[in-house]
Each structure stands twice: as C-alpha cells, then as structure tokens.
Design goal:
Layout (H helix, E strand, L loop, with lengths): L1 H19 L2 E9 L9 E2 L5 E2 L2 H9 L4 E6 L8 H5 L3 H9 L14 E2 L9 H9 L5 E3 L3 E2 L8 E2 L1 E6 L2 E8 L10 E2 L4 H13 L4 E6 L17 H4 L10 E4 L5 E8 L2 E9 L5 E10 L5 E3 L3 E4 L6 H10 L7 E6 L16 H15 L7 E5 L10 E4 H7 L5 E8 H10 L1 E4 L3 E4 L1 E3 L3 E6 L8 E7 L2 E2 L5 E7 L27 E7 H10 L3 E2 L2 E2 L21
Parallel strand pairs: 1-4, 4-5, 5-6, 6-8, 10-12, 12-13, 13-15, 20-29
Antiparallel strand pairs: 1-16, 2-3, 7-11, 9-10, 14-15, 16-17, 16-18, 19-21, 20-25, 22-29, 22-30, 23-24, 26-27, 27-28, 31-32
C-alpha cells in the first residue's frame, strides 16, 4: 500500500509539473516613428487617444511578461522633441512600463536608428543615445562610437524563460555624415541569425527602420530589406520583421516557396498605438508558436505619473488658438483643384527665398518639398501646435548651383499622379517661379511647357543658384531628382552652402511672426485655403 501511495504521489507530481509548467506566454510590444509625439490628441471624432501616458496605463494591464522594441525615428518631429534634442524621448523610453508588474525590465529593451534620428548630426545622436538604458541595435553601422553605451549588431533577451533574439537594421539619414550606414546585406544578416541560433534563441526578430512594404507606399518608402532576403535559405528562420519609416499600420504573414516565413509588422506612428505579439512556449516539448500580431490603438486612460511629467515639458503656448479657422480638413496632399502646387509648400518656399536672399544676393529661386510638410490641417480653430506639426523637423536650408537643364528635368521628375485628381507637383516654388506642364493619362508623358524665373525663360546651360532643405540636393528620398551631391560623399560645404538658422521650423515661425496684428490678436492669412471667420476677442475662433 505504501509503495502504491508513493507511485501515485510521484505520478501526481509529474502531472502537476507538466500542467503547471506546460505553457509560457510572453509578449513583444512594438512601436515606431514616435517622432516626439508624447501627448494625447483628438481623433477624427474628437476622442482623445495616443501618447505616452496612455501607453503606460495600457502596459500596466499587460497579461504576460513583456519587452518593448522600437524601430526608430524617436528623437525628432515635435517642438518638444526638437528643443530637447531628443532628451525627452529617451527619458520616456527609459521609463516606459515601469509601473507594470509584468515588465521584464524598466524601459525599452532595444531600439534601432531611424533616418530622422540623425537630423541633429553625429554629435547630437551620440549625446542622446549615451543616455539610453536599453540596447542600440544596428548591424549595418560602423565608425560610430556612443559614449557610455555601444551599438550592437544583435542581442538576446531572456523573457521569462523565452529567449528572444533581435537583430537591428538602421537607416541612413541626412546627419549621418561621419558614420557609415550601409544597406543591409544578406551575408551580414545570415551571420547574426546564425549567431542567435547558436545561442538557442527561441524567437528571431529583425528590428528595422525599413517599411517592409512592397506595395501601397511611395517609391522612396518601399522596403529595401525584404526583396534581397526572400530567396535566402535562412529566410524562414526569422519569425518577425518589425519595421517602420512609412508611418503605416500593417500586419501580414509571408509565405515563400510554400514554406512558413516571417510575419511582417509595422506599428504606425506618433504613439497612436502599438503592436502586440504573444509568443507561446511549451515547456515540455520546447515548441514555440507565435500568435497573430494585433495592432492596438491607445484609448486607455492616461497614467497620472506620466501625465504629470508630460504637463511639465509641454510648451502650452503652442496650444493657444490662432485667430483663424479651417472650415474643412485640408489634406497634406492636394485634392481635385486647379492648383497643382500645394499652397503650404509654396508659402514655405517663398519664406526660404526671402530669408536667404537677404544673405545671398545672387539667389535665383527656392523650392520646398510637400513631403516636408507632415500633417493635415483638421477642421476647426487653428492652434500653434497645428502649425508646428506642419513642419516638425529642424532641417537646415542650403543653396547650391544647378543647370537650367537639370532644373527642368528635376521639376518634371518630381511631378506625381493621383488617380482621384491627376498630376500635381510635390514641390512648391518661390513666387518668382512660374511653371506650366501637361501630363497624359495615368500620369504618363509629363511635359514642362514653360518655366520662367523672374519672368525669363529658364535656359538649359545657365547656372542657377537654388535654395532647398539640404537633404534634397543630397538626393535623399524625394530629393533624388535634384541630386547634386551623392549621399555617400561627405558634405564639406563646398557644394551645398548651409544656412543653419534657416531651419524648416524657423521658416514657419518666421511666417507666423510676420502675420498682421489686429488689436493684439494674430491673424493667420496663409495658406489661401484657411479662412478668417471670427475676430471676436471674447469668442474662440470658429464658434
């Protein structure tokens, strides 16, 4: 009887071990392109959502142990982020999740570097990354040392017994002039994947500032990483590609050659939400399965501790109403109208032209990229923050020489097509420039019919002095048609002359400062599609 009792007890112990240790779930939370959008804001229906205070309260309720990963572009893109040179971003990322009982370790476990994280140059990037308490992952960067920290190609995290291996892939940016950021190569990624497999990683993740999308985005946003890896024999070893850069919310499983392959995940932007990936590990068999990733918008209440910090750093003067009213939402890109060059980009180009012409008498023209205005204007009273969000990055202006032939070719190449309203320019030019063009069906056969500067026809062989944000003549992104200095050549100032006080945000505030004053009230007169409807001191605009 005693022997039987021992046998039964042993069996029960084994069963108990198997059942209590059978399943282990952990979570990876992913964000990207936060761009200094620390605060909540209204959605299209007026309900408040997003921001780090709501992120914190969401993490408090996480059902399993988790880690946080970010795909870059965290340090630049709002007035508060720019004025603190990214320091506020790092503080919030270091402390995210600290009130949750299921947090592996306070703060983001890892981030990679986005193109806008270099906007402050190498020196600025070193300063903010030196304060980051997690890992900086970038397998494709060399020649860049971070004080009090280091850049790693990959890292492995033990999250409640589940080993998560993460490989970082950074993106080149306009301020990365003294560090080498190369395009990701399959040989380098293979080396890191093999390294993590040898360390017995249960889950393999590629954390990249790359859009991962092959369709549904503009040419400059399409993935550079996935096409070269799809035929690589270790492609299926990766479980998750966590991307960014395109500001899209996108989740899709990939299958290649009828074999299971990674999920690709993009988590939108501006801390409007995050992606949750639940990973299940069977402790008996060791088998790991990954649940379908889920994007979650942040409508949770705001955490009071984080809200208190955000209230301290917020520049409240930007939240005051400017005495102007937007009658209908104005989209970033033009809609059906006769104006094929957007008013906001023209306004910025003219301000750049006027500011720099005071210092450089030989300036012929200026152009401002529509893509450098970053947001729509929602209907309703206009605030200073609405204006600041239009051009959120502190990008420098500069001047350079361009031939008339190159200029006309670049203008032609930068005309885009939308199926809803046809062709339009992605640039606004200073007021002394006139351009007329035609294009055929589906945006084909674009022809520049006439282009004049100060009333004179542009001559093919003449050299013109032009002003733009400096990343454009260096060929970055939408600036490729205007490229006069290739991305991989250091800029010593001999080709592009920098005007460091003429940043995109300074241009905007230069416009605001010139606005007419009526009885102590600022009146916003431009762009043309913003109407003045209310000038009563005691009544908020638009009421």
């Amino acid at each position: 009887m005693q022997k039987l009792f021992k046998s039964v007890s042993l069996l029960l112990a084994v069963v108990s071990l198997a059942t209590t240790g059978y399943a282990k779930d952990i979570i990876i939370y992913h964000t990207s392109d936060t761009h200094g959008h620390y605060f909540s804001r209204p959605d299209k229906n007026g309900a408040e959502f997003g921001g780090f205070a709501r992120l914190e309260s969401f993490l408090q309720k996480a059902p399993h142990t988790f880690i946080l990963l970010d795909s870059g572009d965290f340090s630049n893109g709002s007035h508060e982020a720019n004025s603190s040179k990214g320091a506020y971003s790092i503080y919030l990322m270091n402390n995210a999740g600290k009130t949750s009982k299921n947090f592996r370790k306070a703060g983001y476990a890892a981030l990679t570097i986005g193109n806008h994280d270099t906007d402050g140059g190498d020196k600025g990037l070193k300063a903010i990354l030196g304060s980051f308490k997690g890992d900086i992952l970038a397998s494709n960067i060399s020649g860049f040392a971070v004080p009090s920290n280091s850049i790693k190609k990959s890292a492995i995290y033990d999250v409640d017994g589940v080993k998560v291996g993460v490989i970082g892939v950074a993106m080149n940016g306009v301020g990365a002039e003294r560090m080498q950021v190369i395009a990701p190569r399959e040989e380098a990624l293979l080396t890191e994947i093999q390294k993590l497999k040898e360390k017995q990683a249960d889950v393999l993740v590629v954390l990249a500032h790359d859009s991962m999308m092959e369709t549904g985005v503009s040419e400059d946003k399409k993935t550079v990483l996935l096409p070269q890896l799809k035929n690589y024999e270790g492609f299926a070893d990766v479980d998750l590609f966590l991307g960014g850069h395109a500001h899209k919310q996108f989740i899709k499983p990939i299958e290649e050659n009828n074999a299971p392959a990674p999920w690709i995940v993009e988590s939108g932007s501006y801390v409007e939400g995050l992606t949750q990936i639940i990973i299940h590990k069977d402790d008996v068999t060791g088998k790991v399965t990954i649940g379908s990733p889920e994007y979650i918008e942040l409508y949770t209440p705001e955490d009071p501790q984080v809200k208190k910090y955000l209230d301290l750093i917020r520049k409240t003067s930007l939240d005051k109403t400017v005495y102007a009213f937007v009658p209908n939402r104005i989209p970033k890109y033009p809609e059906a109208s006769e104006d094929r060059a957007p008013a906001r980009a023209r306004m910025m180009a003219e301000e750049m032209y006027q500011q720099i012409k005071e210092k450089e008498a030989g300036l012929d023209l200026a152009a401002y990229s529509l893509n450098s205005t970053r947001s729509d204007l929602n209907a309703g009273p206009l605030t200073g923050r609405d204006l600041a969000d239009l051009v959120p990055y502190s990008e420098h202006a500069g001047t350079f020489d361009i031939t008339g032939n190159h200029l006309k070719r670049a203008v032609k190449e930068s005309i885009e097509y939308d199926k809803n309203f046809g062709c339009f320019s992605v640039y606004g030019y200073s007021e002394n420039v006139r351009i007329s063009f035609t294009c055929g069906k589906d945006g084909k056969d674009v022809q520049i019919k006439q282009m004049t500067i100060n009333g004179e026809e542009v001559k093919n062989n003449k050299i013109y002095r032009m002003a733009m944000l400096t990343h454009l003549p260096r060929g970055f992104y939408e600036g490729k048609p205007f490229e006069v200095l290739p991305q991989n050549i250091p800029d010593d100032g001999s080709v592009i002359k920098h005007y460091r006080d003429a940043t995109s945000s300074a241009l905007l505030f230069g416009i605001v400062e010139k606005l007419p004053q009526t009885d102590g009230m600022s009146i916003f007169l431009a762009p043309a599609d913003v109407q003045i409807t209310q000038l009563d001191r005691n009544t908020p605009a638009g009421k």
